[in-house]
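Lab notes, practical 5.
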Amino acid sequence: MTEYSVFANPDFDPNDYANAILAGEPYPPPTSDSKTGHAKSLGTTKSTGQDSIGKEDISVALSKLTFGIDDVSKQIKSLVTAHHEHLLGQAASASSLSGSLVSVRSGLNELNNSLEKLQQRVHVPYEALQELVVRLRKLQEAADILRRTSRFVILARRLQLQMSEMKSGTDNSPSTGASQNLDVEDDRERAIAKAALTISEISAILDGPSVANDSSDTFGATSLRSISAVAAFEPFVEESKTQVNTEMEQMVMTGLKTLNQTVLASSLQTAFNLGVLPELVSNLLHDLSQAVEDRIKSAFDLSKISKEALSKEPASNSSQSYRSRVRTEPTNVTAPQWAAALWGRLEAMFDEMAECCIKVYALEKVLKIKKNPNTLSSFLDEVALDNKPSAMFWMSLGVALDKYFRDSAKASAFLQQTLVTGYPKLLRLFHQFFSRIAVHTDTVYTDTHQSPETILVLRSLAQLEIQYLSRSANKLNETITQAFSGGSRSPPSTTEASTLCRIAANEIDSAKFDPLLVKSVAKNVATCLDSVVNKADNMMIRDRSALSLLGPIATPQHLLNASLATFLYQSSLRLSQLEGEHNAGVYKLIKPAIENIQDMYATLVSPMQQAIQREISAILAKLHRIDFGQQNSMPSGSSLCLRELSEKLSFIKDEVLGTYDIGEAGRAWIVSIVKFTIRNFLLHISIAKPLSESGKLQMTSDMTELEFALNSFMAQNNQSRRGDNLQALGEEYRALRAMRPLLFLENQDLSSPEATSHLPPIIVLHHILVRSTIPLPHKLHGWQEAEYVRWLDEHTEQESWTLIDGGLSHWERIAEAEGTDTQEANVYAALARTVLKNCRERGQAIGEV
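Output from the prediction step:
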């Protein structure tokens, strides 16, 4: 089979082969890559066959081809003979398949005939119908164009009439009377609104798609501008639109300027009819906000301030001064003129701010009132802004104020100093601004309520307020530092307290008009007053020398503490007066600081009060060194301890209390000392035992001396006033006066409430026990007289009665155990129990009441 490989090649071409034989060339040609490669692959198996085919002659080639054909025929015959059964089966299958193919061909022919008939019935009518539909759509489009054109012409003629009405209203308004002027203006405004609505509809017809072409498979909207009848009216429509826009803008400006809601509503209705309402409102808000921002910027322009200040100078000064350039900072001489120019420009700025704010609220009010007749939604909803116009204006105003206040303070030391120093004045301008717009807006700025808009605007002053508060705090701190600068050699006193309180009150008063600023200043004052307490605490002398009452003069340590106490008392007293001058919220902020000062004052005074009481108690305790039980000895005057007490009271009055300038507190302190002295004196003399008649006379003499000393202690005080005498003491003085007759009462009268009405029950009980042989309570417990008196001073009356009652029971048990004769003593015990019973009954009656 290798001999026939050339003929088995898929690229074999008989013509090329024959031509190669005739030409004597090899086949396949060596110039072809593919054929050369194929020849090479064949050359490995056949060394002499086809490689030399080109060199053979034609006869040989023909003989070979003949031989090859015969050989192939023989092979085919042998293969058919070998496989005849299989081939016969294939022939039979092919014969049966041909019959089936005939029936299929018949069915296909019938199907083709049916398709031709169906095409005649469906496709041809469809094409005709499609052509008719296209023709109908063109007719509809033409009809729609005619309809729109007709509507346009009708609207254009209507617009001509409306523009004529506008023109006639404009021409006739000057000639009409005042009574008809408003009617003419109303007619003209209505004509403008109608013209705007007509123009809006015309624009929709010219620019919008036709109704007939709204389906998804339209030919596209046809513009009416190409129609001659429409094009003829187009210039008039554009001119009318321009004129209506101009009239509408003038009406808006007039309405905002005069705050005429009728004119403003008509202009907004016109803008809505024109379809430019959102754009108009946005532009108005932008213009108003920009005008305010430009005015704020101009108010802080140093070059303009300089020119204005120079223009106000006297002519002589202006002619003599050399002005090579405009100054950006004033001199010490021109600073007042610059400040006056700045405040004048700020006042003008706030006036313009108020006008623009009122215009914004007027615009917003009309936008809320006017409604879309189709959707019934307000114009405010129609404009679809990010926020309400008023909120947008306040936001832009707050940003502008914050920016220019901050930048101006940073750029100019003059502006910063003027604004910080005059911060209350600047804040008053804000108050005037809020008051002016409150009539037209819902803005509120009072002590009890502040609108969010006012807080938003006032935040722009945050840096100035911080600097103002720092300046205020520095002023207070400097005053406090100066008050304590003398140290222990020159401690603060009444003068320094007056200065401090005056400055604190002035600072609060200067901010009183603003509810927020006054609270901030009050916090500042409270912080500074806390530092007063700290400085006083550090300066206070806590040594025993500050409490020494040895005399003859007060110690320097005591004088220092007394001066500090005077300073603290006068400060707290004068600061407390602020409660009636300011509202509760402000005073509440400084009240804790005032209470701290009062506590510090008490810390300074309390040790001295206790020292005075201890000194008086120690002197009165010396009464028990006197023998009041002597018989037949007449008193030769008051006892030594009373004379010592009189001298000590004189020292306390002159050298101790005289160093304090504490007003009513000093008088109350004197009264408390006198009452304490009387109570302790009565307790001491009530337990003096034994007691004879001469002893009673001595006690009476001592009472007279004590009364004289106390009266002198009160009456000779330079702080005394009318009525400050012993009679004003009340119960203590009446008890002192009632002690004399108690000494000389009969035994049976000791238990009578009427006979001992002004005396404390414990005094009566003591005197009963002194007359008897029953031991006094301190003797039963082994106490000293001073300890017992101190115990009575620290406990209640009920506890002292219980102590007496217990002592009586204890004495009775001991006497019974020892078998002592108690017949005489029992009389006094019964008197004591009667007094105790009366006391308890009176106490229960008072409790029930």
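Observations recorded by the TA: The mean pLDDT is 83. Residues 284-313+334-443 form one domain.
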